[in-house]
Amino acid sequence: MSLETPTPGDPSRGEVAATTPRRPSLWRHGNFVKLWSAQTISQFGDEITQLALPLVAILTLEATPFQIGLLGTFQFLPFILLTIPAGVWVDRMRRKPILIGADIGRALLLTSIPVAFAGGWLSIPQLYVVAFAVGCLEVFFDVAYQSYLPAVVERDQLVEGNSKLELSVSASSVIGPGIAGFLVELVRAPLAILFDALSYVGSVIMLLFIRRPELLPPPHDPAAGPRPSMRTEAAEGLRYVFGHRYLRSIAACTGTLNLFGNIGGVILLLYIVEELGITAGTIGIIFGIANLGVLIGALSAERLARRFGMGHTIVGSAIASPLALVLVAIAPRDAPIPYLVAGGVIGAATAVIYNINQVSLRQAITPERMQGRMNATMRFIVWGTIPIGSIVGGLLGGGIGLQATIWVGAIGSFIGFLPVLFSPVRSLQSIPDAESA
Fold first, then answer.
1. What is the pTM of this model?
2. Fold adopted by 29-215+234-427
């Protein structure tokens, strides 16, 4: 980061901050609260599906480790296939209609699972199809969602906005798994997924009430020549990310963490159920307690960045995150629950702290016209490693055993912090000015 050297007589940063009017809390920002509410409702439902969908495969359809890995692969494969073109479309369109359309589509797709279960024709191939189709819509939702926040709040409110959005993840992730485990045992896993479908309907209603105008991207000027093709605009997004000193190192770090994290994580539920002998209801309680880490991360991410600097916070959270899988791998079979809870707290807290800071940095340093393609390219890289990790984890789980596979993921994750450690990100104290980024 290039910083200007202050000259004698210039006010210090503290003096400037003291004289800068502080904006009201985003809890008083009506449009943001509606966006936050939509995310909270949808995220709560997602917590049910995240637990119930693999349990449908494990408990209802008796899936093998490879089939579980393949299910995770289908779920995230769209982030390899569609993310780059999705970024171009998002930069050409208003973002809110994309969010609403993706929510409606996901509600319909997830409803097909309890319907098929009630009709007696639910199968593993159907889970693959639904997981893939929902993943396709999630690509568009996620790219549009992260690009939409800067249109709802001001640039200097992005860290606060992302922190509060993570609070929605926190509230739902603490409450959701316990309720999900209870629902799975009460009505069985396929029927529990219906609650996620209903949550998307609630999200749509809240999004419809956001009134802040969203400007349509300016039309192409014919005098400037023919409109660039999607391939040209997609290539511009790739060049922007790979050519940016901050973005390329963040992409490498996150992609590596996701690759190895999913090698161990994709068979985690199978390991807990089959080798540790824990029931669905208890799993829900464990995950609910462990997800207090999300609350810890959401409440501390901004404070840690102010205290230690944004760069050190990003690097430190990346270093600590692999401890989550280590604690799972060393959990004793006669008393695994404290280790699973501790690992979950560490994993959730570090992931939230890392994501709030790196996503806020990305949003703030990227021009509005590039937001969609930047987010799409980042998603392509960092989520594109997830299906690779899932299929590798499924193969290793069937080949070397579930616990050994978790160790592979844990050990590999410890190299994830290196790209940000040896980059200019490490020296960042706060979000740099757009001109100096």
1. 0.68
2. Growth Hormone; Chain: A; (1.20.1250)
